[in-house]
Amino acid sequence: MSELALEFHVRAEPAHAFATWTERFGSWWPRAKTVSGAPASVRMEPQVGGRIVETDADGTEHVWGTVTRWEPPHTVGFRWHLFFDPAEATDVLITFTTADGGTRIMLEQDGFARLGAAGDQRRQDTGGAWTFLFGEYAAVAEGRTHEGDDR
After folding, report:
1. How confident is the prediction for the chain on average, in pLDDT?
2. 105 and 10 Cβ atoms separated by less than 8 Å
3. 77: which residues sit within 8 A by CB, 6+ positions away?
4. Could you tell me the residue range of the domain that residue 95 belongs to?
C-alpha cells in the first residue's frame, strides 16, 4: 500500500490525459511552484531515465526528478525531489484508466517513511499540493485553460 494515494477524474480520454500530464507538463504547472518562479520551460523527457526539468531564461536547469516508468498512455512513474535534495526523493506512480466517460487518474507516492520524523509532515503537505495541482492540470486537460495563459 502506498504512503500517499490520491484519485482524480478528468473529462478526457486516457491518451489525452497522459499526454497533457507528460508532454504538456509546463502548460499546467504553475510558475509560482517552480525553483526560479519564472521558468522558460518545464518539461518531462519522454523515456525511462528522462528528466523532469525546469529551464530558466538564461538556460540554467533545475532537475525535479527522473522518469522511472514510461508506458503511454496508461502509466508514468518518477523519482521526485522538487525543492528537496535528490537524496530525499520520493517515488510517484500515476495511472490513467478509462472511467465514467473520462479518465480516472490514480497517483501513488511512496518514500516518505525513509525521511524519518519529517516524513509525516512531508506526506501531508504533498497530498495538499497534488490536490491543488490537479485542479491546474484538469483545467488544461479539459480545455478550460489554454497553453500560454499566465500560470
Report:
1. 93
2. yes
3. 67, 68, 69, 70, 91, 92, 93, 94
4. 4-33+70-141
pLDDT of residue 146: 55
Helix axes 119-141, 14-22, angle to 10 degrees: 120
Q: Per residue in 78-91, pLDDT tens? A: 999 999 999 999 99
CATH number of the CATH domain containing 123: 3.30.530.20
Question: Residue by residue, what is the 3-state secondary structure of 27-55?
Answer: HHCCHHHCCCCCCCEEEECCCCCCEEEEE
Question: How many CB atoms sit inside 10 A of residue 88's CB?
Answer: 16
Q: Looking at the domain assignment, is residue 151 inside a domain?
A: no
Q: Are strands 41-44 and 61-71 parallel, antiparallel or unpaired?
A: unpaired
Residue 57: inside a domain: no
**Residues in the chain, pLDDT under 70:** 1-2, 146-151
Instruction: Tell the residue number behind the cell numbers 497533457, with chain if given.
Output: 20
| Spatial CA neighbour of 63 closest among 34, 92, 37 | 34
Q: Report the Cα–Cα distance between both ends of the chain, in Å, rounded.
A: 34
Query: How many domains, the chain?
Result: 1
What's the pLDDT at 151?
42
